[in-house]
Amino acid sequence: MATTNLSSSSMPSSITQKHSLYPSHHPYPKTLPLSLKPLQNPNSPHPQQQNPHSLSLSFKLSSSKNPISSFFPQDPTPPEAPKDPNFLPESDKPREECGVVGIYGDPEASRLCYLALHALQHRGQEGAGIVTAHESVLLSVTGIGLVSEVFSQSKLDQLPGSSAIGHVRYSTAGASMLKNVQPFVAGCRFGSVAVAHNGNLVNYRALRHSLEDQGSIFNTTSDTEVVLHLIATSKAGYFLQRLVGACEKLEGAYSLVFLTEDKLVAVRDPFGFRPLVMGRRRTNGAVVFASETCALDLIDADYEREVNPGEVVLVDGEGISSLCLLPRRQRKACVFEHIYFALPNSVVFDRSVYQSRRAFGEILATEAPVDCDVVIAVPDSGFVAALGYAEKAGVPFQQGLIRSHYVGRTFIEPSQKIRDFGVKLKLAPVRAVLTGKRVIVVDDSIVRGTTSSKIVRLLKEAGAKEVHMRIASPPIIGSCYYGVDTPSADELISNRMSIEGIRDFIGCDSLAFLPLKSLREYLGDEAPTFCDACFSRNYPVLPTDSKVKSVGDFVDDGLNGSVDAGWNEASADETTEEGTE
């Protein structure tokens, strides 16, 4: 099969891929683990030599102009990568990097996957993709932007089939990273396989270098591609054996969904860092996997259970098989899912996110009381904790900050600079609530402290007499290596300053965090089963290299730079401190 390499400069931000699945009887030389050629640039003066260990993707541009239904949007004009100085930086928050969906046994799998991804949009806003299996072919549409910007009626018409997987992604660059938008699809000697991944592999660099030494050629800079190479180069005879063998070599966090012509497989790492739940549609019993239960709710699927840490769940024409083939450790579920990432209406790690956040606010009111007139929240993530604080403190909760939901990625600022322009675009103070009042502001976390200082200044300029910050999480003192985009430890304000120093920096009248001890007491007997490394530096799985990943994906597009470009040197405590089991 001929393949064409589309450079990032000429590639549209939405593509359709078509991947043939080979019959099991097709004769292939046993020495060739993969069947497709590496991607090549036809304009390059130095075309790559074919390598038997390379993965390749075959791209088919789509420009369908079919009429649309009243529900699905028309073909959108994809957003370009921000290149101007008016680009609005993201808020000063850790960001969950991915959300995954898998559906088996529904004739409208792609449309259900689209809706489920929409429900998971908060987990990634930079790219989205869906792959379906139809008549022994894997069909794929991926693109840069929100789910509603990537998919339309005509795009979904190109994705028939009764099984599908989908992915939403937070990335660190724009259109040049289109090749890194998942799900990834690769053709191997046993057929084609698609994968979507939520998490981060702490041994990605070592695995990639080892595979490259063996002749593998990588098409992306995402750690997820390592999984496909490990499957493809495996000597095992059956797909499930290849998959399990590959996962046994992975270290770190991974909740994965795989799709072949006749199978859907869900896998969760032995520590269970990232969530992955299973449900069934009420109408036809179709099996659904998703990162959060909110995705199940939208498509009328009932939550059944979590995929257990170390579990492999296989769904095919014969039913559901559950295999605990991976070595299971003590669970280390990410506690930040309950603090910030997950939606309040989700059940994550068998706990209500809403109840957790409300309890965090109540604990803050008990442990850090202050005389005040009104409690407000930093929207939207601080609302539930603020409600808990207000009820426990007996102080009225009011909406003192209004969030604009219509701010795009870029905005033209007037030539006369406006102070705190980005924050003012997103948050507007309500003077009737704030003027002359002693105000408690509840937020979920402080990372660098830059946004918090602007919010405090905004509130005081609106007439607040006093501003008291209450943070519904412990101080963040360590970077996360398990699928969350956090700055390096040197950029974390709580790692550099005392609480009093932070208070002085952001300019509030008082500051209090949720104590880590109190967080663990709330979790009770389950506390040892949650990962709180960002608060304690007790890393269950330490990075195996002298360098650690600074963000979820490299800024480099995989063609113009080095694989080492996205790595920071690990600090001493991150490479020597013992993790907890």
Distance between the termini: 48 Å
Oligomeric composition of the shown chains = single chain
Rg measurement, Å: 24 Å
Shape: globular
Spans with pLDDT under 50 lasting ≥5 residues? 1-15, 19-90, 172-176, 546-581
Which structural class should the secondary elements be placed in?
alpha+beta
Strand content: 15-25%
Number of helices: 18
Keywords:
581 residues; 29 strands; six-stranded antiparallel sheet; alpha+beta; globular; disordered C terminus; nine-stranded antiparallel sheet
Provide structural commentary:
This protein is α+β, with helices and mostly antiparallel strands and 581 residues long. The protein is built from 18 helices and 29 strands. The chain has a 9-stranded antiparallel beta sheet with strand order 2-1-6-5-7-4-13-12-14. Strands 8-9-10-11-15-16 form a 6-stranded antiparallel beta sheet. A hairpin with a 2-residue loop joins strand 15 (312-316) and strand 16 (319-323). Helix 9 crosses helix 10 (383-393). The protein starts with 13 loop residues before the first strand and ends in a 5-residue tail after the last helix.
Which helices and strands occur, and which strands form pairs?
Layout: E1 14-20, E2 59-60, E3 95-96, E4 98-104, H1 109-119, E5 127-134, E6 137-144, H2 147-150, H3 153-157, E7 163-169, E8 184-188, E9 191-201, H4 204-213, H5 224-232, H6 239-248, E10 252-259, E11 264-268, E12 277-281, E13 287-290, H7 293-298, E14 301-306, E15 312-316, E16 319-323, E17 333-334, H8 336-341, E18 347-348, E19 351-352, H9 353-367, E20 374-377, H10 383-393, E21 401-403, H11 421-426, E22 427-429, H12 431-434, E23 438-443, H13 450-461, E24 466-471, E25 484-485, H14 493-496, H15 499-506, E26 510-513, H16 516-523, E27 530-531, H17 533-536, E28 547-549, E29 567-569, H18 572-576
Parallel strand pairs: 17-27, 20-23, 23-24, 24-26
Antiparallel strand pairs: 1-2, 1-6, 3-25, 4-7, 4-13, 5-6, 5-7, 8-9, 9-10, 10-11, 11-15, 12-13, 12-14, 15-16, 18-19, 21-22, 28-29
Helix pairs in contact: 5-6, 9-10
